[in-house]
Design a protein that fits this description.
By secondary structure, the protein is mostly helical. Helix 1 runs antiparallel to helix 2 and helix 2 packs antiparallel against helix 3. It has three helices and no strands.
């Protein structure tokens, strides 16, 4: 982005992309939780604690990123590039911004790893009969 958008505006463009990313992340985690609940209700497949904890963590990371980190990073970005801000405030804002940005990046890497673990768990076949009981076919 830095090649075709100037310095203060490329951060704003990145914020728009990140906002949509966090919304997409929350929607996907919500759909996965709904799918897990429907699978439990429909086929009586047990919900494993690790899977539920993983999905709740992914949903929580989306909420933290979209409603905590991103607004704070937006305010710090304004402080960093506002023409009337003093150099001391700009330096403090820059430090805080990079701490939040680094934390958000680590959180996004954890989300990618969590999605991979969830994908492995979902595609793993279950050893139980899903739709009928085994006693139904005995004579």
């Amino acid at each position: 982005m830095t090649s075709f958008i100037r310095q203060p505006y490329n951060g704003l463009a990145a914020q728009v992309v990140l906002k949509r990313y966090f919304y997409l992340q929350m929607w996907c985690a919500g759909i996965a939780l709904a799918h897990l609940s429907a699978e439990w209700l429909y086929s009586r497949r047990p919900i494993h604690r690790l899977t539920l904890l993983l999905l709740m963590s992914l949903f929580l990371f989306g909420i933290l990123g979209g409603y905590v980190f991103l607004p704070n990073m937006k305010q710090l970005h304004v402080k960093m590039y506002h023409p009337q801000t003093t150099p001391e405030v700009k330096a403090a804002a820059r430090r805080s911004f990079w701490i939040l940005h680094g934390t958000s990046s680590v959180m996004n890497l954890l989300v990618i790893g969590g999605v991979l673990v969830y994908l492995i768990q979902v595609t793993k076949p279950e050893n139980t009969a899903r739709f009928t009981s085994l006693t139904r076919f005995k004579t």
